[in-house]
Amino acid sequence: MGDSSSKHASPPPSPTFSEPWREIPWRHKDRELQYVRDYQPHSDVQHLRILLHGPVGAGKSSFIDSVDSVLQGRITTRALAAANASESFTHKYKTYKIQKGRPGDFYPFVLSDTMGLEMQDGGVHREDIKLALKGHVTDGYTFNPASKLSDDSKYYNAEPTLNDKVHVLVCVVPADQIPLVSESFVRKIKDIRRTASDLGIPQLVIITKIDLACPLIKKDLKNIYKSKYLKETMEKFSYLVGIPMNCIIPVMNYHEEINIKDDVDSLILSVLRRIISSGEDFINHMET
Fold first, then answer.
1. 89 assigned to some structural domain
2. Torsion of CA 266, 270, 276, 282, to 10 degrees
3. Closest CA to 84 of 209, 244, 219
4. Per the count of CB atoms within 10 A, which of 11, 167, 177, 273 is most buried?
């Protein structure tokens, strides 16, 4: 401990960057919220369709609840996220609208939830995700890990409209599972990505459970882009599945709170704005 070599030893690397490597509009929650409230698709579509997929327990349903909570101004639990999922809590394809003001008035985007992908075998059949991307899956379909949706099923939409098709694909992955992802899981994600890319659908990744994976972020959410651990985790997932870093966005879902918080809202709204912007670019490109 006290020998001469220790006097010249380099200090341990800092777990944080001195400055955040991305900026979040923490002080502009109202501006971000207004953007979402004012948004209208510049197309003939009634709504943007956002499809969520990812491993079991990633927080897909929690993200839907979190978006709903931010826009309602109170904690909601419509998607009924599982408290601690070892197997997928979502078994049916379900699309969520978010109320805007009066009953019957909804935001012009919807979030479609899917059964979780297993790290090994089981979970949602990847072909069902591909069919959903193309608009062939209707609400109420019960996912079957052993087989994809049949084209003679009552839940198969043979002639999907632009409203039925997916406009943004969002992969939801928990930060604490990224170091443990299997080759099988990576192959599934890449396979789904190829189909989305062939269709021209924009793809984003949401990294959840960042507060559970990194003590610095748990201490203060504003450390999110100062955490070296989080950046390294994002870089690893980017390398594994081939998604650019600028398409990977960390978020903290509401999971134990009973009241909304400005910092959590700001982060969720910044993610939601990026999703909406990506979907808007897609449908505008489809018109040309």
1. yes
2. 180
3. 209
4. 167
